[in-house]
Amino acid sequence: MFEHLQDQPADKILALMSAYRADPRNGKIDLGVGVYKNAEGKTPVMRAIKAAERRLVEEQETKSYTGLAGDPAFAAAMGALVLGDAVARDRVAAIATPGGTGAVRMGFEVARMANPDVTVRVSAPTWPNHNSILKFMKLPFKEYRYFDEATGGVDFDGMLQDLAGAKAGDLVLLHGCCHNPTGANLTPDQIDEVIAVMDGRGLVPMVDIAYQGFGDGLDADAAVTRRLATAFDNCLIAASCSKNFGVYRERTGILMAVSADAAEAGTTQQTLDYLNRQTYSFPPDHGARCVTMILTDPALRADWEAELEEVRTGMLALRQQLADELRQRTNSDRFDFVARHRGMFSRLGLSPDQVESLRADHAIYMVGDSRINIAGLNRDTVPVLAKAIAQVLGA
To answer: Where are the domains of the chain?
Structure first.
């Protein structure tokens, strides 16, 4: 049986991580892996998470299964965090999932069950695993224009034109905030125009919100998701706790499905429960329970929000520093967009040859499309990166 299996293509980011680890040079810089790192290059356990875990050890009396959908308190807490009061709670069905990736996969599954003829519309570019999952599922997808390499902003006219060509019932995958891999976000006015086009074409939104709190703040980063959930009868939302709670290895995520009314939400909830049962039965609970404790305990929540704000403002400071350094080194405003981007990532618009030169000549590692993880930098390495970029550009 196994002799018929074929080698699978290597994951480019994992291969980059391996090459970085094998590089013996001092002062090497890793801007490839998509996890938050502090100034010391560590991904810390947040203070509130440690406190919640300590409390959980003392208070938890069983490791028995939760329900198929996970702990209802987790769904309620995450629903409040992501959606606020944008939609009535009885319109929202939800399941806990293994990370945001699990939520994305389950969102695609329920979309296909609801509409076997669905085509998923994804931004060009998008997080590579979006397309990889869709290919594996043999679920049809098409790209819509999104990133303008020349300006470092959104190709908004191209996006609207492509969405206007989608067929009724298609699922449009949007990033809730902090677009990965580009860092370029839509403005509130642009979101309203996107909604008008989607509504006119009978399209259904699906939001992947993986970085709430990393861009402009918790509520500001949820604004797009809330606007979409309000504007449409049906909306899928895949949310991750990996980044804003720092629980990457706990695989803590949730899929929420907004239905037209409470009756429809009941059927949707049964469908989501069924999908969980067929896929992994009961979802993981440890990370979800810690997140729930933090979101429902005023003291823990205040400490979590304070630390998250430090993370957010720290990345914004690094963005501004890098934009300023690049302006000085290149004597141009070519990279000013870095300061306008939000979240962990920006795509610099360098060629593959320039990216390879940064690796070979300067021990600076980034993805081949020139996506960098801003959180891989600190105040001391920003000038090193800027100098190296100027050199490979011949500035």
So the answer is: 12-44+309-393, 65-296
